[in-house]
Design goal:
This protein is an alpha/beta fold. It folds into two domains: about 130 residues, Rossmann fold, CATH 3.40.50.2000; about 180 residues, Rossmann fold (3-Layer(aba) Sandwich). It is built from twelve helices and ten strands. It has a six-stranded parallel beta sheet with strand order 7-6-5-8-9-10, with helices on both faces. A four-stranded parallel beta sheet has the order 1-2-3-4. β8, α9 and β9 form a beta-alpha-beta unit.
């Protein structure tokens, strides 16, 4: 395998001053293909904001199969003058692909409107569970560091960006603050960093003073330790496409509380591995958190189910076998 290009295509069609770079990159990729002799071209993610403008061209010129992982098709984008060109370029790429893999059911359905069914495959989103396992020693060490004793610890994680990420964390802080004010014993640990950190710290001081631990940014290969120290993972996931944090937390044995929107229902099984509440509905959201914190046995039961659920349904070691089989067939790889 060889990475063909690092060209950034986000809004490229609206930046004519970069078009020469595109032509130059196309030529470079052609030359690279002559040297590397690839069996196929695989593009990861193409949609209206960042349509693939290299793969369709180079694969056609070099007569090699063209495949897309996570292609997205949305007709509403064609009606906007700002996104129309990107919609058309993306549609051309999708139509050119010999096969498209989708890790969202909604995207799969949309793709089947324009692509023959035998050229579209659904691959459930996943993680490598071995990278996210409960660590009892990390739990002891971190809880001692946080000085939380035996109190339940709600954990949450997101980038502190001025968008739905910070909005989501604000929901968590306010919800936990109201529960604590009503007598629920809890701590909140938040992993992440960014420009909105002062805002979130002020919010924490207002709603949950002395009870919020901001850990800073944690490297992904260390997040299993953070999850292991908690008892419940809470993050609304406002307009969340999928959200790998939900899978990571469940893999470490944590039930989830989130909004039932976007693609979250594809990675959290409501009533079995977590509780999903209506979008932006405060009372159900707070009630779901309280339900878990007031029923330790439910926490443990759903936590065990969460681990089993991820390993069975969202295990990339298993799910990518399907991708591998199709790619080998298309590229005529030798097994």
């Amino acid at each position: 395998m060889k990475v063909a290009s690092a060209l950034r295509c986000r809004w490229i069609y609206a930046k004519p001053w970069n078009w020469f770079s595109v032509f130059r990159e196309q030529r470079r990729c052609e030359k690279q293909a002559d040297e590397f002799l690839p069996d196929l071209w695989l593009t990861y993610h193409t949609y209206y904001k960042a349509p693939d403008i290299l793969g369709p061209y180079v694969s056609r010129r070099k007569k090699i199969p063209y495949v897309i992982f996570q292609g997205i098709y949305s007709t509403k984008r064609r009606r906007d003058i700002r996104t129309g060109p990107g919609f058309l370029l993306n549609r051309l790429a999708l139509a050119r692909a010999e096969h498209i893999f989708s890790n969202r059911k909604e995207d799969e359905l949309n793709l089947r409107r324009i692509i023959p069914s035998d050229r579209v495959s659904y691959v459930p989103p996943g993680i490598f569970p071995k990278d996210f396992q409960f660590d009892p020693n990390a739990r002891i060490k971190l809880r001692r560091l946080w000085n939380v004793g035996d109190a339940p610890v709600v954990v949450s994680a997101a980038m502190f960006r001025p968008d739905v990420k910070t909005e989501g964390l604000s929901w968590v802080i306010r919800a936990c603050g109201k529960l604590f004010a009503e007598g629920t014993n809890l701590f909140l640990a938040v992993a992440g960093d960014g420009k909105q950190k002062p805002f979130l710290k002020n919010l924490a001081e207002k709603y949950l003073p002395g009870r919020v631990i901001f850990t800073g940014k944690i490297q992904r290969d260390r997040m299993y330790r953070f999850y292991s120290a908690g008892d419940l993972f809470v993050f609304p996931g406002i307009r969340e496409s999928l959200g790998m944090v939900f899978l990571e937390a469940q893999s470490c044995g944590l039930p989830v509380v989130a909004f039932d929107n976007g693609g979250i229902a594809e990675v959290v099984r409501h009533g079995e591995t977590g509780l999903l509440t209506p979008l932006l509905a405060e009372k159900p959201f707070i009630h779901a958190i309280h339900t878990f914190l007031s029923h330790p046995r439910l926490l443990k039961t759903m936590g065990r189910r969460a681990v089993e659920y991820v390993r069975e349904n969202h295990n990339l070691d298993k799910n990518y076998l399907k991708v591998d089989q199709i790619l080998r067939k298309i590229g005529q790889f030798k097994t």
